[in-house]
């Protein structure tokens, strides 16, 4: 019997977003075991690393090897973050199925992070799209608009600026443009407004919600995005990558809690939550002493799970 098609796509970003924000470097063998456990839990898209110079991010020095290993899982979309054309070339060489490029809406954040303005990043996108046009099968190219909901350097980020940049990225030929709450400043009303506008402008090319839990609003923001039609959600197992500005708060939305919320609502994720919780073991083995977050793994599943939903 075939399982019913999931209603939402949970895109696991822990091996990239999580690992690059912790100090320790997870040994390659542990990364591979962790990714295998995530796949076994039913995750169908995993951001496995980023193609950045190893001297900047030694945590990602083994990314090509990790991509090669992850590709052995049939049906898994192996995704990697690339900051620029050079990273995209390396991702193509390694065989990534999909790349995501962070493009910052905040000029200040963009210059501090990649030493390029948002407009210069759009030019870079055109070159990345030209590069992938030469690939068969074509690699998917996604953009995540960082600081879309606010910036720690600049403060308020204008909603019109977010939409203008999203349209420019789509115009450069990328497949999907998502919105990222890089700094954990989003609220549900804002999420509803911005994703509604994004979807009106870009239609099917409106991409993922990448929410952080810095101020405890991660799940509320995901639900707000779901309510206005978003169906792809980034999350990180154990909320790995705690935010340095908010001790005790996780960085990314916790995958376990996100899956629990959707499944409890009767929204199918395709993820087995018990197997997902079990995937914390290889994560913790590879990063001894690193804090992991999440309420569902602490509380356990309620009696009678899976609940008899009627959705
Ligand atoms: Zn993140």
What does this structure look like?
The protein is globular and about 50 Å long. An eight-stranded parallel beta barrel has the order 1-2-3-4-5-6-7-8, surrounded by nine helices. It is built from 13 helices and eight strands. The model has no long low-confidence stretch (mean pLDDT 93). The chain has one domain: TIM Barrel (Alpha-Beta Barrel). It has 311 residues and is of the alpha/beta class. 41% of the residues lie in helices and 14% in strands. The longest helix is centred in the middle third of the chain and has 16 residues. The two termini are 21 Å apart. The structure holds zinc ion.
Tell me the distance between the termini.
21 Å
Strand order of the largest sheet: 1-2-3-4-5-6-7-8
The CATH C-level class name = Alpha Beta
Total number of β-strand segments?
Answer: 8
Helix count, per DSSP?
A: 13
The molecules bound to the chains, other than polymers, are: zinc ion
Which ranges are low-confidence, i.e. pLDDT below 50, for 5 or more consecutive residues? none
The number of distinct structural domains comes to 1
Task: Name the CATH superfamily assignment.
Answer: Aldolase class I
Mean pLDDT: 93
The shape is globular
Question: What helical percentage do the residues reach?
Answer: 40-55%
- Would you list the SSEs in sequence order as H and E? EHHEHEHEHHEHEHEHEHHHH
- Judged by helices, strands and strand pairing, the structural class is alpha/beta
Q: Into which percentage range does the β-strand content fall?
A: 5-15%
CA-atom Rg in angstroms: 18 Å
**CATH architecture label name:** Alpha-Beta Barrel
Q: What do we call the CATH topology? A: TIM Barrel
Q: The biggest beta sheet, please?
A: 8 strands, parallel, barrel
């Amino acid at each position: 019997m075939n399982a019913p098609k999931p209603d939402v796509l949970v895109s696991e970003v822990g091996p990239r977003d999580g690992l690059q924000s912790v100090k320790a470097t997870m040994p390659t063998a542990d990364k591979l075991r962790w990714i295998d456990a995530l796949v076994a839990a039913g995750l169908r898209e995993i951001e496995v690393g980023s193609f950045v110079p190893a001297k900047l991010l030694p945590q990602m020095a083994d990314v090509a090897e990790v991509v090669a290993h992850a590709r052995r899982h049939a049906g898994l979309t192996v995704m990697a973050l690339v900051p620029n054309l050079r990273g995209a070339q390396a991702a193509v060489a390694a065989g990534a199925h999909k790349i995501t490029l962070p493009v910052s809406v905040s000029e200040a954040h963009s210059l501090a992070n990649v030493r390029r303005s948002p407009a210069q990043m759009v030019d870079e996108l055109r070159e990345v799209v030209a590069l992938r046009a030469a690939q068969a099968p074509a690699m998917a190219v996604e953009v995540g608009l960082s600081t879309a909901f606010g910036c720690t350097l600049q403060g308020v980020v204008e909603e019109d600026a977010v939409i203008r940049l999203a349209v420019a990225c789509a115009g450069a030929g990328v497949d999907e443009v998502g919105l990222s709450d890089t700094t954990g400043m989003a609220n549900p009303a804002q999420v509803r407004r911005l994703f509604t506008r994004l979807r009106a402008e870009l239609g099917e090319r409106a991409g993922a919600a990448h929410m952080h839990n810095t101020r405890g609003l991660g799940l509320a923001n995901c639900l707000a995005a779901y309510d206005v039609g978003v169906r792809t959600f980034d999350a990180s197992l154990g909320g790995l990558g705690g935010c340095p500005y908010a001790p005790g708060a996780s960085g990314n939305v916790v995958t376990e809690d996100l899956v629990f919320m959707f499944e409890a609502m009767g929204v199918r994720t395709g993820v087995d939550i018990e197997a997902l919780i079990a995937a914390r073991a290889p994560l913790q083995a590879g990063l001894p002493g690193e804090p992991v977050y999440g309420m569902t793994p602490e509380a356990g599943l309620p009696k009678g799970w899976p609940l008899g939903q009627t959705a």
